[in-house]
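Minutes, methods subgroup
Present: GH (chair), OT, SY

1. OT presented the first of two proteins processed in the latest run. Sequence and structure tokens recorded below as shown on screen.
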Amino acid sequence: MGRPRNDRLAALARRVDIPVWQRDSTARPTMTVHEPFTGEVLGDVPVGTVDDVEHAFVRARRAQAEWAETPVRRRAAVLRRFADRVHARREEILDVVQAESGKNRMSALDEVLDAMLTARFYADKGPGLLADRRIPGAIPLFSSATVVRRPRGVVGMISPWNYPFSLPMGDGLAALFAGNAIVHKPASLTPFSTLLGVELWEEAGLPHDVWQVVPGSGREVGGAVVDRCDFLMFTGSSATGARLGAQIGRRLVPFSAELGGKNPMVVGAGADLEQVADIAVRACFASAGQLCMSIERIYVEQEVYDEFCDVFARRVQAMRLGAGYGWGPEMGSLVSEDQMTVVTEHVADAVAKGATVLAGGHRRPDLGPLFHEPTVLVDVPADATCHAEETFGPVVSVYPVADLDEAVARANDSEYGLTAAVFCATPEQGYEVGTRIDAGMVNVDEGYPAAWSSLAGPSGGTGISGVGYRHGSEGLLKYTQAHTIATQSRALNFGGPGSLPQRVWGPALARSTNLLKYLKR
């Protein structure tokens, strides 16, 4: 299947033309989007300004007031129609995601499935999560209380280039379902995936101004979004997340962030090494390793270390690399020369300090300008850059450990704590090991998809891997403000009967309050 037509991308670019977010008709500079497979131009998108961000928030706040009054069941219907539109136009979405990111088609399919399934999950479960909730009042029979959820207002969203469809769509649908509007700065490398997604939302019935897209630089447009939003959702590096967290914290505005990962895999004796190697290929090299949840460290029990290295290296060497829009390649391209520089420097540094390359290790200009082989390293010393720092590319290091206890200790020896994978002789043993790993998501007998796709549970990280959660009740309710409304009986309030002296009412209130412990048993 061929690349997306340039006229189709031009139509998407017009979504960010004057009617959407520009305050005036002054022509804007444009940024050019390139296809990583070939380096060819895909199209141009106008670049926003701080003034444009301000205008976008004005429009979004006006639209949000009406959207928040839309009944929850009707908002759920919009989510279901969005999921249906994603399924109906999945081939077009795959084309656009591949064209902008350079990933292989199966990795692009992850994005389609994630957006579709998350929309349907919240459409089904979300009304119950947002419903008013009765709670016990302070004084039985004389007090009642209810917790109500209200939208925060306008959510600012800054999304990355590595999953340009599923991450903004997944974050956005939860924010929208909670009754918020969105002002969104997509990654400069991959704006078309976002624009296509917003087009699908409007086809599903979302009012036009509820989701505003303002492309531009992170420093100017992104900073302006942070300064104006009522809640910030950011996905990106831990360093940038810390900076934006400090910026928005000065306004005491809440935020959520999924950040970096240096994710470990534990392989115990007794695991099926052939199966582990097949799964590890996906876990390490999906989207060419440009995934915050990809595995970059593998700890293998000593007695099976040599065998695993042999099996894994052979499987990696057999991987099918290539450009194109068909289903053949197992791994595609890196997204930019900046990413290529990081990958090549990490590999060169490790080798210079004594590491051995078991598989890969080289650029592949014969396949395209940004192709790099999936790379397996062993004997990586502690002072190598890739030993502790996130590579965010197709590079994984394998280390021997004496036993599973050492594997857990090594896995936990990191500032990061996003996800982990565990393979042992039995699922029960794997589960026990998994409970000891400091990561927000742990997968037993699978890479990242098992925990990530368990939509009823929270998805997030510990340490410098993030703040807050996606998915589950937490992933929706973070976009709301909780309000407790309590009603006290007029027959008895906390001041006591009007004719009763305080010297009598005070001790009586204390004794009766103490008696409440028996009612709760």
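2. SY then presented the second protein from the same run.
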Amino acid sequence: MARAWLLPLSTVLAVGCAAAGSRSSTDPAAPVPAPVAAPAERGGGAPAAAGRATSTRAAWVDSVLATLSVRQKAAQMVWVWTLGDYTAADAPGYAAIARQITELELGGVIVSVGGPLDIATKLNALQRAARLPLLVGADLETGAAFRARGGWFLPNAIELGGATSFPYQMGIGATRDPKLAYEMGRVTAQEGRAMGIHMAFAPVLDVNNNPKNPVISARSFGEDPALVSEMGVALMRGIQEHGMLATGKHFPGHGDTEQNSHLELSRVNVSRARLDSVELRPFQAAIDAGLRGMMTFHGDLPALDTTKTAATLSRRVMTDLLKHEMKFSGLLVTDALDMNGVLGNMTMAEATLRAVEAGNDVLLMPTDAKVSIDAVVEAVATGRITEARLDESVRQLLAAKHEFGLHRQRLVDVEAVRTTVGTTANQAPARDAAAKAITLVRDSLSLVPFTLPRTARVVSITVSSRVDLSAGRGFDAELRSAYPNLLSLTLTPEVVAEATAGAAAGNTGGYRITPDPALLPASVENALAIARGADLVLVSSYIGASTNTASMVPTKGLPELLDGLRAASTKVVLVSFNNPYLQLGLPLTEAHLLAWSPWTASQRAAARALLGRAPITGKLPITLPGVAAFGAGLTR
């Protein structure tokens, strides 16, 4: 089984000189772990070795657990959020997170955006600050670059590089190639571990069968549970067989909802039979294949629990269903506890206690870590929660730390990051995935591949947010190699309104949305004036799925732009680099292409496909109502 890779992990890590609990800043750094073969591949002696490893691990866990107070046990379950950015050693932001690690003795962190070297350096520093080694998780849904890109240097707009980017999972679904999903997992694990990350909060196992879903969309492999199962298991195996713990999400399924769980309690109102046949299938497949981690869904599923409780806080869902019925025995991680979907009008203390009672092992991103720890300590003192319940979770967490060899060596070799992260070898499968994901949904005039002469008047209109500096750069550069006179312009939607998740409840989670981005009329008129009379116009959108579920129009002003081009008898190719449901609510264009991610590799892959420099083979992993059926995709 895939889970067996963790058994001997400590044997492939360098033995450091720091024992558990050491804060020495002179610990030697560990090399990147080598892939560990499954038991069947190791030959004779594996069962005995596994048995010795299990016995050694249990002894270490018992010895550490015996030294922990109730407060320290509660703290092991609490993980806080930190940026992976560069910070000076005395920067206030870094000091605040380091102080929490040191004073509260937290068990782990979730690291967010930063450059690969900055992430590795910061995590090493936090590991040195911790009494017990930290477990580190990160949302690595499209590879390590989902959180570890270098960004851009301003005002020169110089791209600073970073880890390897794969298309969104729905793009991998469009390839129908589980080998690419496995490669995505392999690269993710190797690059993430090199930076000091142990858990990938991936794969997304939600079945996205609702086009109006404002949260999941292209993060899912698609709408078909069989496809999601196959691709999810392949990605999971790629991650876990190369030194990292995979975390399926968001159990028991975040796909069929129209509410944003960052802002409110989502709802999936279907029968238990439907859940069994659709939503739960990918999770069960991954569990059967050895999935080691699971993240929860802040949603109400009446078929599973009629109390209108977020699944995250429901013992019926997380213990009775997940652990008992579905036989999941790994680490259970809450989705962020600062989200309104779980908090609502509840206090952080009460949400924490209900999460523990439901069976969660990791309390992720509470609004106040100390409040959560204090609540658990008081609940044990009053008898609401038993210390034995805490021990169940802490044993799991300590065992994982031992399996990763963190009891011997908690640091990574920063000098070795550049030999693993973003290498040419890792970029190759990512470029292959980007190319194979390209899906041609519509081509009524057989415009693709383009046959216009080099002197043709071609206009490329990029629709993107003002902060997306990469939008259109790779795409237009590739197009310009065929059409030197390419005219490029960018339309930036203005934000009509914005809101912060949890603001009404005093939550400072920081989730910010733009419900109704709109192209200004003057911008639309200017674009039409420039594009009229062109031989071909490409309209490319880098805007994500609409958060306004009352309408499927992704960006106000875009329909007017397309209508204006149609009125001028201009041939238009619509390209979506982000929202796969972009065409819904828009006038039909002569051609429509899906590229499945805004990253540079996908931009160049889309342009190469349109120019006939690469084949087009992608097949829709979703249905586009009124536009194209599941499995559709023109081959070129």
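Chair's summary of item 2: The chain has 19 helices and 22 strands.
Next meeting: continue with the remaining queue.
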